[in-house]
Amino acid sequence: MSDDASALKRERMDFGDTELLRTINNSWCNAAGVVDPAAFNLSPADRKDLNRLSIARGDAATPEQAYADRAECIKARCDTNGRKYNSPAGVLAVTVDEVESAEIKSSEGSRTPLTVWDDSMNDNRSDYHGHIDFNEVPADDRGLCLLAAKTMLAKAQARGWKFRPVEPPE
After folding, report:
1. What are phi and psi of 157, to 5 degrees?
2. What percentage of the chain exceeds 70 in pLDDT?
C-alpha cells in the first residue's frame, strides 16, 4: 500500500475478541460460495507492503462499511484501468486471538507467528485500517503462508459471512 511501509506508525492490537474484517474479492469466491485461501494469503502487493495483509478493524468499522469502501476502491481501480468491475463477494472475519493463536507446524516445530496491528493513525490509511503481519512466516516459504491462510479462512468460515450484498433480482 505504501512505497515505504516501514516508515508507518503502528500499534499492536491486544483485544483478543476484536473482529478483523476481510472483504472477499469476487475472484476468491466461486459460484457455489466456496472461498479460496487466497483471500487470507499474501498477494504480491502485500509482499511489497512488508508482508502485511490489510484488514478493517471491527472495533472501528462495520462489515457493511468495510465492504462499501473496498468495493469503491476496486471500482475506481477498474475504471482507471478500463477493466470490468465485479463487486466483492462479501466480508468474513477472524478475531485477534484466532489470528495470533494460529499454529504453523513445520520441520522447525510448531509456533504462532502471526501478529495483528492497528496502523490507522497514518495519513494514508483509513480510520479503521489494520493489518495481519506475516513477517515471522518465511516469505519464501509459500507453503507456510498458505497454511496460515487456510487456518484463518477456516476460522472465518466457522463464524460465517459478516456481510453479503443483496443481489438485485434479474
Report:
1. -65, -30
2. 92
* Spatial contact of 93 and 108, defined as CB atoms under 8 Å apart: no
Cβ distance 149 to 40 under 8 Å?
Answer: yes
The candidate with the shortest Cα–Cα distance to 22, out of 81, 78, 102, 99, is: 99
Cβ atoms of residues 61 and 17 within 8 Å: no
> For 23, which DSSP code?
E
pLDDT digits over 51-61, tens only? 999 999 999 99
At position 154, the amino acid (one-letter code) is A
In this structure, which amino acid lies at residue 151? T
Q: Kindly state the average pLDDT of the residues 98-115.
A: 82
Concatenating the DSSP letter of every residue in 124-151 gives TS-TTEEEEE-TTS-TT-HHHHHHHHHH
